[in-house]
Design goal:
Two copies of one chain form a homodimer. Chain A is of the alpha/beta class and 259 residues long. Helix content of chain A is 24%, strand content 28%.
């Protein structure tokens, strides 16, 4: 199996190395990461300046590894459409920090995977919901859930062609993980999103930050809850944003010729 | 009605001015735009540096107008959560250039509107599928479709609370527009996406560009086709990315305790 590994934390981040190392025994690994950290980039692409690609040698387990001075989506586009790689699967991550609920809209990791889907390649995004200390937990469950028989990658029908799997792994020791839950995306709201400060010259500026509000729900079918309770969450995400159930109703009311 | 107008072409772009002018007779208008053009930014947000807000006076018809040195999503977040505005509706645009099919994933315009939805505010994105020459066509149809009785804004049940309406207007004279079609998102593919060049020092660089492939379909229920045929397309877009129809099936196979 030919893996293309990408991320948004940058080519030198520990998570992309862990992912490449974990995949290496199971196939050929090419790695592409942004030159700089790109968290919060969502599905941004770079259209107003040229992109540069550089071969790098930070991931010994990879057949090929390189960096692009752009966004996570740029990296995957470049690997496939610029450099002509033909991966069987795009693996994005391992992100340090969760990509849960509505936050996936802002996620460079999920967008790197989604770019694979747009290009017709199956894709999986993997995030560790906390600090690097538990990166080995993430590596362990990537191997266990995806790679070792009867892992998801051995059952391609489990990975949609018009969507991706978004996997979030709790940041706890391996033996404290309670299991796997297939989930829906929850809604993530933040308290005190902007912090207003004054610079030394008396001008105001704002930092975006904020604390996620605690979830009131205890529904383990919601990704945020499942991870909070110690489960690995797997959420299927679709690539078609059309609100299909509204189309017919709106057509009856709004379709008009020669307005 | 209190409108918040945002865009991705920047506060000085002609489209945001046209939109504010068109809305002004129908309510109170606040305007927020990025300081610089932000096309292709998708749903990026700025988390690694502070943001600055400046009052500006480029849109005479607005009660308030200001600029944020960030992304389109930053602008809407800042207006609501930083500056405390309480709009009834977020209007994004008028973008110069289409936001059709899978390209909406990269669209700063659609993301500005989506940020409104995340914040619990109804939202509409408007794009003109071509150059500024036909901006008055876009203004005309915004008024006709949304504002004048029985416009969509007078029928709030037509605008979903957990999604938005994405409107694309063909770049033709007003009298050549053939009508309105409620549509689904099509798939947009590009030929020759990357152009490889060599700089004066002999180093390679890539420009992302490419030409959209012509659509083979003639299905007017697809946004790309409808606009090509001279219709205004209105596509409802959902905010929940969960691939719901896959959840049950995957749960049966993958849900496991104590893996």
């Amino acid at each position: 199996m030919k893996f293309l590994v990408a991320n948004d934390d940058g080519i030198f981040a520990p998570g992309i190395k862990m992912l490449a190392e974990t995949l290496a025994p199971f196939g050929t690994v090419a790695v592409v990461g942004p030159t700089e950290e790109q968290s919060g980039m969502g599905h941004a692409i770079t259209v107003h300046r040229p992109l540069r690609v550089q071969a790098v040698d930070v991931i010994p387990q990879s057949a090929k590894s390189f960096t692009v001075d752009g966004t996570p989506a740029d990296c995957v586009k470049m690997a496939v459409q610029g450099l002509g790689l033909t991966p069987d699967i795009v693996m994005a991550g391992i992100n340090l920090g969760s990509n849960l609920g509505t936050d996936v809209l802002y996620s460079g990791t999920v967008s790197a995977a989604m770019e694979g889907v747009i290009l017709g390649i199956r894709a999986i995004a993997v995030s560790l919901c906390g600090p690097q200390t538990y990166l080995s937990t993430a590596g362990h469950y990537v191997r266990k859930i995806l790679l070792e028989d009867p892992g998801i990658l051995n059952q391609p029908n489990l990975i949609p062609q018009d969507g991706l799997l978004n996997i979030n792994i709790p940041a706890v020791p391996i033996e404290e993980v309670k299991g796997i839950r297939v989930t829906r995306l929850g809604v993530r709201k933040y308290e005190n999103l902007f912090e207003k400060r004054v610079d030394p010259r008396g001008n105001t500026y704002f930092w975006m930050g904020g604390k996620p509000q605690l979830t009131e729900s205890s529904d383990l079918d919601i990704d945020i809850v499942a991870v909070e309770q110690g489960y690995v969450s797997i959420t299927p995400i679709q690539f078609d944003l059309t609100y299909h159930s509204l189309v017919d109703g709106l057509q009856t009311i709004l379709n008009k010729e020669y307005i």
